[in-house]
Specification:
The complex is a heterodimer of chains A (289) and B (154). In chain A, 35% of the residues lie in helices and 25% in strands. With 289 residues, chain A is α+β, with helices and mostly antiparallel strands. Chain A has three domains: 7-53, Uridine Diphospho-n-acetylenolpyruvylglucosamine Reductase, domain 2 (2-Layer Sandwich), CATH 3.30.43; 63-173, Uridine Diphospho-n-acetylenolpyruvylglucosamine Reductase, domain 3, CATH 3.30.465; 178-288, Enolase-like, domain 1, CATH 3.30.390.50. A five-stranded antiparallel β-sheet of chain A has the order 4-5-10-6-7. In chain A, helix 10 runs antiparallel to helix 11. The longest helix of chain A has 24 residues, at 265-288. The relative contact order of chain A is 0.12. With 154 residues, chain B is α+β, with helices and mostly antiparallel strands. In chain B, strands 2-1-5-3-4 form a five-stranded mixed β-sheet, covered by helices on one side. In chain B, a hairpin with a 2-residue loop joins strand 3 and strand 4 (53-56). The chains are: A alpha+beta (289), B alpha+beta (154). The interface between A and B is medium-sized, with 27 and 29 residues. The structure holds flavin-adenine dinucleotide and FE2/S2 (inorganic) cluster (FES) (2 copies).
Chain lengths: 289, 154
């Protein structure tokens, strides 16, 4: 299989890439790891007239933890995250999700930023980013724009980028005090997309009460979705089995899964509840460690 | 578009259409050891090493290999001798039909470069993007362990 013909450019600077994207308008697409875009092009589900390959742009493969954020540049591959001590030190949910994204070969090539941009409701990263309150740094020829992840993930395969914008970086605020996070994913076989997955993140105040809570769900809605009522139930509370159970039940209510080959809707909702509770327990243990 | 690739150690210049997939480019040169299994990024039969890292060549364009070093199963052999991973797959019967074998060996060779003494779990995890429909993986794991031992002792 091969895709329809397209024009190709492989700029060696971000400015050059942005200029090409601006000139080509809506007919151009960014090519990052290509692990979603190329299969879609081969199946002719996507047929961009122009591909702007960003893989040759130096300086976009950074992970750093300066100035209050853990920052992940556009060319950081999933596998770079698996191997990053900086990520492990600063964000439990990102660290625990990375090994469960796709398979090792795809992880060697696919990027976190590409995945975030792709907005596949079965993709893992946007749930993690919603739970961790990420920000997307979008760059265009007219400058930089910071987009809260809640505003970035619009719908099924739809983000809020304007034509001409590139995701330069995705960043998450560092924990204010003690914090922890987890990503629990149920898959049919290793390397598969999620049947159901839940991202959780907790932060504790000086008094040991929950100061911030993030919970987001994968593959059970038409986009990755925050379980906002469940988060609210936790904030200000002393961590306990009871409050985690209550949050888990509320998270299950935020899921609107479909019955399909991966399981029935009722069962998936049940998995959301169990994984939310386990994820909160793991997040708490990490925050207290 | 003109591309320059180091293909199995030899510099090579070619003219390719941007939409040509790397796997088709490779097979077009006559090096048919790189297989197309699924053609949908799912099986790993098309695995090649791109600057030493295993990737699915059905999910990369040939133009993206410009300036890179590509190693296929044909490039594993050194000075006419089988690479240890090849010798071990033979020794431990790490294959049946052989369709997955080139990709499996390249992924395994890259693993052993990084981790010369992997545990069984680490081996199974590393090859989890390469699907084998025949062996049940048992002899593949044995072959990788055997290659690791031989390489450590050599
Ligand atoms: C077999 C297989 C299994 C997989 N399993 C999983 C899984 O379990 N979980 C999971 O989350 N994902 C999975 N994936 C998808 C994988 O994570 C991809 O790497 C990811 O979805 C896309 O990242 P990419 O860098 O490859 O992006 P590309 O394919 O290059 O691009 C995807 C889309 O995002 C846009 N884009 C990319 N980068 C940018 C940028 N910097 N700025 C603006 N737009 C951009 C592109 O234009 C395109 O529309 C799987 C893929 C395969 C092939
Ligand atoms: S042929 Fe490339 S992954 Fe199957
Ligand atoms: S030996 Fe037949 S697919 Fe692996």
């Amino acid at each position: 299989m091969f895709p329809p013909a397209f024009a190709y450019s492989a700029p060696e600077s971000l400015d050059e890439a942005l200029a090409t994207l601006t000139n080509e308008g809506e007919s151009a697409r960014v090519l990052a790891g290509g692990q979603s875009l190329i299969p879609m092009m081969k199946l002719r589900l996507a047929s961009p007239a122009h591909l702007v390959d960003i893989n040759n742009i130096p300086g976009l493969d950074y992970i750093d933890a300066a100035n209050g954020y853990l920052r992940i540049g556009a060319l950081v591959r999933h596998n770079d995250i698996v191997n990053s001590e900086l990520v492990t030190a600063h964000n439990g949910a990102i660290a625990s999700a990375a090994p469960w994204v796709a398979d090792p070969l795809v992880r060697n090539r696919g990027t976190l930023c590409g995945s975030v941009a792709h907005c596949d409701p079965e993709g893992d990263w946007n749930s993690v980013m919603l739970a961790a309150r990420a920000q997307v740094v979008a760059q265009s020829t007219s400058g930089e724009r910071v987009i809260a992840i809640d505003d970035f993930v619009v719908d099924f395969f739809t983000n809020s980028l304007e034509p001409g914008e590139i995701v330069k970086e995705v960043r998450v605020p560092k924990y204010a005090g003690r914090g922890g996070g987890a990503y629990l994913k149920l898959e049919r076989k290793i390397g598969d997309y999620a049947t159901v997955a839940v991202a959780t993140q907790l932060q504790l105040g000086e008094d040991g009460k929950i100061s911030e809570a993030g919970i987001a769900l994968t593959a059970v809605n038409n986009k990755n979705t925050r379980a906002i009522a469940a988060e609210r139930a936790l904030v200000g509370e002393e961590p306990s089995d009871e409050i985690f159970k209550e949050a888990a039940a509320l998270a299950a209510q935020a899921a609107e899964p479909e019955s399909n080959v991966r399981g029935t809707a009722e069962w998936k909702r049940n998995v959301v509840s169990v994984y939310t509770r386990r994820g909160l327990e793991a997040s708490l243990a990490q925050a207290r460690a | 578009m003109q591309i320059n690739i180091t293909f199995n150690g030899t510099a090579q210049t070619s003219d390719v259409e941007p939409r040509q997939l790397l796997v088709d480019y490779i097979r077009g040169t006559g090096a048919t050891g790189t297989h197309i299994g699924c053609d949908t990024t799912s099986c790993g039969a098309c695995t090649v090493l791109v600057d030493g890292t295993p990737m699915k060549s059905c999910t990369m364009f040939a133009v993206q290999a410009n300036g890179k070093s590509i190693t296929t199963v044909e490039g594993l052999k050194q000075n006419g001798d089988l690479h240890q991973i090849q010798a071990s797959f033979k020794e431990k019967h790490g294959l049946q039909c052989g369709f997955c074998t080139p990709g499996m060996m390249l992924t395994s060779a890259a693993l052993l470069e990084e981790n010369p003494d992997p545990s069984e779990d680490e081996i199974r995890w590393a090859i989890s993007g390469n699907i084998c429909r025949c062996t049940g993986y048992i002899n593949i794991v044995k072959a990788v362990q055997h290659a690791g031992e031989q390489l450590r002792n050599s």
